[in-house]
Amino acid sequence: MPRTPLFKAVFAMDPVHLPLLFPESVMARLRQAADIDPGLVVQDLTEPRAAAALAHAEVLVTGWGCPHLGAAALTAAPSLRAVLHAAGSVRSLVGEALWRHGVSVSSAAHGNAVPVAEYTLAMILLAGKDAFTHRERFRATHTHPTPAQTAATGNLGRRVGVVGASRVGRRLLDLLRPYDLHVLLYDPYVTAAEAAALGAEPLPLDELLRRSDIVSLHAPDVPATRHMLDRRRLALIRDGAVLVNTSRGALVDHDALTDELVSGRLAAVLDVTEPEPLPADSPLYTLPNVFLTPHIAGSLGNELERLGLIVVTELERLAAGLPPAHAVRYEDLARVA
After folding, report:
1. Is there a contact between 164 and 217 (Cβ–Cβ < 8 Å)?
2. Going by C-beta distance under 8 Å and a sequence separation of 6 or more, which residues neighbour residue 192?
3. How far apart (Å, rounded) are the C-alpha atoms in residues 102 and 171?
4. Does this model's pTM top 0.90?
5. Which of 34, 67, 72, 103 has the fewest CB within 10 Å, making it most exposed?
6. What's the rounded Cα separation, in Å, for the pair 166 and 173?
7. How far is CA 187 from CA 166, 202, 229, 306, in A?
């Protein structure tokens, strides 16, 4: 029986990511579903070798460092049928021309949500134990805390406010279920019944901020959410509470947050900031009540293979005549990452 012709596909990303996204076994599986050259990774659509491959390409396998895919991409790849993105958001990647042309777009964002939710869970549990404060005190005094210093410590009944039932937010809610925590949720698109099914008590944002011991941000970075935690809303959070941000720095008014943290009224676990990275003289680098990490919650190292496997599965579905399992819809871009 003659073999079904393979899709003509081209990689478009920063080539530094290719070996981790598509290690040998994953690459072999990809090449069973697509005619793709691992030695060609496009960053410039007009480069002669890239242009020759794109002229016949039906699928682009994209990742971080991919050039913007607008009208020029359709001109370069007139047979383009699908963009399979081995990363998260496609909002800034895919231009209007591709959406209007009906190109199918898929994202591995749900795979990237896994390590972000895992990291966030770890930070919530450590924050509940006041681990960061105790570490700083122990380094300075070399003595164990007194009962008075641990009286407010512990995760039994800790109130965790989750802002946003996004992919990461929903994964986190699932991970929080086994713990003796009281979980609150704010998401304007989630009904009370849906929140209950997710294991959370639905609340308006201001009320969630007032009641939470730990606030964890998982809303998308869209115009409507920019600085959703402004100076007024940050002031609603109770003294001694912890803000965890593994989403986007733009969700928080950075100057207002800095003032709260410098005062010592709040503590924070920040994997993202605005700007990113912070200026070298930012006090957040050295404040004892701030645990600052360099945007590491998302897929790193061997976790990138998960994203590559998602793309391979999507390509296999296309080869079988099935739609992508993780298609991105243009009409959803206004409210998703």
Report:
1. yes
2. 202
3. 30
4. yes
5. 72
6. 10
7. 9, 8, 14, 28
Angle, helix 131-141 to helix 109-128, in steps of 10 degrees: 50
Q: Among 187, 250, 177, 244, which Cα is nearest to 217's?
A: 244
The residues that bridge with 215 in the sheet, in sequence order, are 161, 243
Amino acid identity at 267: A
Nearest CA-CA partner of 267 in 292, 250, 232: 292
Burial class, 1, CB count within 10 angstroms (exposed 0-12 / middle 13-18 / buried 19+): exposed
Catalytic residues: 248, 276, 295
Q: How many residues does the chain have?
A: 337
pLDDT one-digit tens code per residue, 215-248: 999 999 999 999 999 999 999 999 999 999 999 9
**Which one-letter amino acid corresponds to residue 336?**
V
Tokens of 74: 């359709």
pLDDT in tens, 38-75: 999 999 999 999 999 999 999 999 999 999 999 999 99
pLDDT grade, residue 332 (50/70/90)?
confident
Q: How confident is the model at residue 1 (pLDDT cuts 50, 70, 90)?
A: very low
pLDDT at 2 over 60: no
Please say whether the beta carbons of 77 and 55 come within 8 A: yes
Handedness of CA 106, 107, 111, 117 (dihedral sign): negative
Helix (H) or strand (E) holding 137: helix 131-141
Distance CA 53, CA 87 (A): 22
Containing 104, the helix (H) or strand (E) segment is strand 104-107
CA gap 337, 328 in Å, rounded: 10
169-179 burial, b if ≥16 CB within 10 A, otherwise e? bbbbbebbeeb
Question: What would the 3-class secondary structure string for 84-95 be?
Answer: EECCCCCCCCEC
Diameter of the chain measured on Cα atoms: 77
